[in-house]
Amino acid sequence: MSISLPELAGRLDAIEPFRVMAILARARALEAAGRSIIHLEIGEPDFPTPEPVVEAAVAALRRGETHYTPALGLPELRQSIARHYAERHGLDIAPGRIAVTTGASGGLLLAMAALFDPGDEVLLADPGYPCNRHFARLLGAEPKAVPTGPETGFQLTPGLVERHWGPRTRGVLLANPGNPTGTVVSLQALREIRARVRGRGGWLLVDEIYHELVYGRDEPSALALGEDVVVVNSFSKYFLMTGWRLGWLVLPQPLEPAIDKLAQNAFLAPPTPAQHAALAAFAPGVREILDARKAELRARRDYLVPALEALGFRIPAPPAGAFYVYADCSRFAEDSEAFAERLLLEAGVAVTPGTDFGSAGARSYVRIAYTVPEAELREAVRRLEGALA
Amino acid sequence: MSISLPELAGRLDAIEPFRVMAILARARALEAAGRSIIHLEIGEPDFPTPEPVVEAAVAALRRGETHYTPALGLPELRQSIARHYAERHGLDIAPGRIAVTTGASGGLLLAMAALFDPGDEVLLADPGYPCNRHFARLLGAEPKAVPTGPETGFQLTPGLVERHWGPRTRGVLLANPGNPTGTVVSLQALREIRARVRGRGGWLLVDEIYHELVYGRDEPSALALGEDVVVVNSFSKYFLMTGWRLGWLVLPQPLEPAIDKLAQNAFLAPPTPAQHAALAAFAPGVREILDARKAELRARRDYLVPALEALGFRIPAPPAGAFYVYADCSRFAEDSEAFAERLLLEAGVAVTPGTDFGSAGARSYVRIAYTVPEAELREAVRRLEGALA
Fold first, then answer.
1. Given A239, B8, B118, B332, which residue has the most CB atoms within 10 angstroms?
2. How do B324-328 and B247-250 pair as beta strands?
């Protein structure tokens, strides 16, 4: 049956669906037909939420904590997040600067809505997480993708910010570590980027959702640079709470009323069960569980990067964190989309083509997520070896 | 300490904070100082989520269901919602037309983003739920508030839609029952509104979040009018799941891919714990609990409306549903904001001034929510009697 409908919004043309979703659907169909598929396309840790965190939610729900919270989150959760910065990073962040949000997605929407007007331009690295571009578009702002390559770790640099800043540019959004690359921008580079952004009257937003997943060192937060830097973070990745949809913003104190009224209107409040769960996420016993998971992710990376190189992939910007490898597949194929399809069909290994993350060199790269146990990773490498021989 | 910051977005000027939040904060401060306050300002049922719904979430969380779901929600939840329309309303809605969303807020954002471009005008009733206006603004669309009065139940009519439709008008958003009024638009009036909207190539969006809370009759859904009507609904009100942040859209089938890609980008997915809880919300035992709560709300309304009239309030458009009374206070005060403040301070009763919902007659009305037990309502009426004598 076909029905006649009015026109849809023009903005839909500018928003592409994730190609990875089509790959995932394809992989699921193959699985339903009996094929074994190893999922290296999914940007989500395979571990469940730690038990004490789940049990904190269970206890709260059974106590009847099922109503709205304040729009910026439970005051005790804002305090816990502030304390986390003090204890883990030696940073003094007032709880009033923390806004608990519906995922990092919710945080990014609120921050962009507060900082950028329609027509304002925001610089982002290409490749980068595609939602960030689309958030800007949703609000009528213009994401300006800056092509980056392995020589800068696929990240913005002070020079790139300088060169691409235009008359309508109002800010920079940077992910540290980055997705799809897991590469890190040093605090020194961030400091210089901030100086240039501030010098032009713009805003620096730093997406730190993988911040606690930098391996082998304590990576400083961009918050160390000053109160004017806006940080987006999440309980999804290090805290293993993806499905709960909970994140936070750290804001300059004067922005609290603006973000509060935006949050009241756009979300009412972040999910209550998730907030009660998250209160337990900072408990000492939980930190041990999370750090053990982090060690497991690191071991996977340490296995996977050389194994992929041995197969013939080039990894010119090896990941320092997150759970992704951005691998140059140009030795095997001219087009990463066709290559990803071939790996799925011939090897039963699902990966994400670079084209999900932008256009700079995107047809030469695939993102491989190490979000499966190491035994499965080894099996994936064996299968790739067979398919690429 | 003051810090220098870049400019904020201009859209913030057009978005007002809820006055009710200031009243709530004021009320909490009075309570902290030992005063007894009766809260008739809160748009949230006082009942906790039914136990079987909570326990469904508990079981799912303990099974490790803590990951992302598909962007439009768990397929079995989309099916349950479709079945609800079939069983309760005799409507045949394909599950593919249901999008599970992060609250009705998330649904409204997705629907408006898909249907309206920057500069497009959307007609809404004044008074009305303020977030609806602000969503439109967030996306660059123009909410056009149409002044309404008690003679139309504070709702849009076919004639008002006709009269206020302009060259840039692209749609109508209508809440049925309405907030702050609890008044209902008949299916016949909706049918005529739809015909006029369709005749001009526009979209009709109907917010039915209070749809199951129409007392004493089965109110038909606007979905009965045709597949082109877009409906926003929620688990918050009738299903008593406010804090979980879960709602849904019913869309024309051809919109599914557009809403899917918007949802992937803007939200990733609705909260997983809430979705597993909601699967139990349609179970027969739960329906009995919910209908008992609904009977309690109705009894409160049946007590409150004549009691307020006896005090001297005029209620020219009595509520057929939801849990609000929109009461004319002009006999007592010229300005509902000052009146609300006086009631809070002198009677310890918190209500919401009409100015939270628009400007048409707003200074003559207050919204009184019957979201406290009947004994407390009676105490509130006694206190008002004392203060207004």
1. A239
2. unpaired
Q: How many CB atoms lie within 10 A of CB B52?
A: 14
Same domain, A249 and A278: yes
Residue that terminates a domain, selected from A268, A283, A298: A283
Tokens of A298: 């690191």
Q: How far is CA A160 from CA A191, A353, A363, in A?
A: 14, 25, 22
d(CA B388, CA A122): 55
As for the ipTM of the complex, it is 0.96
Which among B8, B170, B271 is the nearest to A243, CB-wise? B271
Q: What is the chain A residue with the closest CA to B42?
A: A68
Which residue range(s) make up the domain with B111? Answer: 51-283
CB spacing of A139 vs B135 below 8 angstroms = no
Chain B: residue nearest A260 by CA?
Answer: B17
Q: Are residues A139 and A185 in the same domain?
A: yes
Question: Are A234 and A302 within one domain?
Answer: no
DSSP B321: B
pLDDT per residue rounded down to tens, chain A (389 residues): 468 898 999 988 888 888 888 888 889 899 999 999 999 998 899 999 999 999 999 999 999 999 999 999 999 999 999 999 999 999 999 999 999 999 999 999 999 999 999 999 999 999 999 988 888 888 889 999 999 999 999 999 999 999 999 999 999 999 999 999 999 999 999 999 999 999 999 999 999 999 999 999 889 999 999 999 999 999 999 999 999 999 999 999 999 999 999 999 999 999 999 999 999 999 989 999 999 999 999 999 999 999 999 999 999 999 999 999 999 999 999 999 999 999 999 999 999 999 999 999 999 999 999 999 999 999 999 999 999 98
Give Cβ neighbours of residue A190 (< 8 Å, ≥ 6 apart).
A174, A176, A206, A222, A225
